[in-house]
Structures are given as structure tokens and as C-alpha cells.
């Protein structure tokens, strides 16, 4: 079951604006601990993507005078740390979901 309240409010606010009316104020949505943890894992994966792209560009660089070995080693170390952090976060999310008794069927 997907919660689409924010999408509904967005459409309703658009309709208010189209009619020249000011939309009513609504309470801010609170994030669950699971959503906060999932957002953290997402940020880690985004940073990981950037580091892998940097490592790819370093590995393709071929210059006689510029040896990127030190930067490649540092970037590789950071990637390993980010992978470990993301893996731990995903495992934590999995355990949290399992512990709450919430199981969803995937189609």
C-alpha cells in the first residue's frame, strides 16, 4: 500500500493556485525512524556513486608526469568504507523491518 497524501496535497494546492486562492496550511509530515535511516543509506549510496565515478576517471587517466596512484589508493579506501557503511545500514533497515512484523508481498 502506497501512501500518496503528499501527492494529493500537491494537486490540491495547484488547484487552489489556479483559482487564485491561498492553500490552507497543513501540519508538517513527520519522518519515521525507518525513513530517516533509509534516507541516510541513500545519501551514502549517492556519495559512493560519486567516488566510483572519480575512481573510474582516475583509472582512465594516462599522463606521463601525473601519477594518480596515491589518489587512487585513497579513493579506493573511501569506497570500501562507504560500501561497509551502506551494507551495515541496509542490514539495519532489514532487521528493523523484520522486527516490526511488517512484511510486504512483492509482485
Can you offer a commentary on this structure?
- The protein is an all-alpha fold and 107 residues long.
- The protein has helices spanning 5-18, 33-60, 69-99.
- The model has no long low-confidence stretch (mean pLDDT 85).
- The protein is elongated, with a radius of gyration of 22 Å.
Summary?
Helix content is 68%, strand content 0%. It has three helices and no strands.
Spell the H/E element sequence: HHH
* Helix percent band: 55-70%
Main β-sheet: number of strands, strand sense, barrel status?
none
Radius of gyration: 22 Å
Through-space gap between termini: 12 Å
Beta strand %: under 5%
Please tally the β strands and state the result. 0
Write the layout of secondary structure elements.
Elements: H1 5-18, H2 33-60, H3 69-99
Helix pairs in contact: 2-3
Overview features:
3 helices, single chain, mainly alpha, 68% helix, 107 residues
Amino acid at each position: 500500500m502506497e501512501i500518496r497524501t503528499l501527492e494529493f496535497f500537491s494537486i490540491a494546492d495547484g488547484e487552489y493556485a489556479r483559482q487564485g486562492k491561498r492553500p490552507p496550511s497543513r501540519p508538517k509530515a513527520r519522518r519515521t525512524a525507518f525513513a530517516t535511516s533509509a534516507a541516510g543509506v541513500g545519501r551514502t549510496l549517492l556519495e559512493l556513486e560519486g567516488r566510483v565515478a572519480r575512481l573510474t576517471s582516475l583509472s582512465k587517466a594516462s599522463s606521463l608526469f601525473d601519477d594518480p596512484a596515491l589518489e587512487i589508493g585513497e579513493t579506493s579506501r573511501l569506497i570500501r568504507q562507504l560500501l561497509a557503511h551502506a551494507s551495515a545500514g541496509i542490514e539495519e533497515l532489514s532487521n528493523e523491518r523484520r522486527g516490526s512484523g511488517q512484511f510486504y508481498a512483492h509482485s
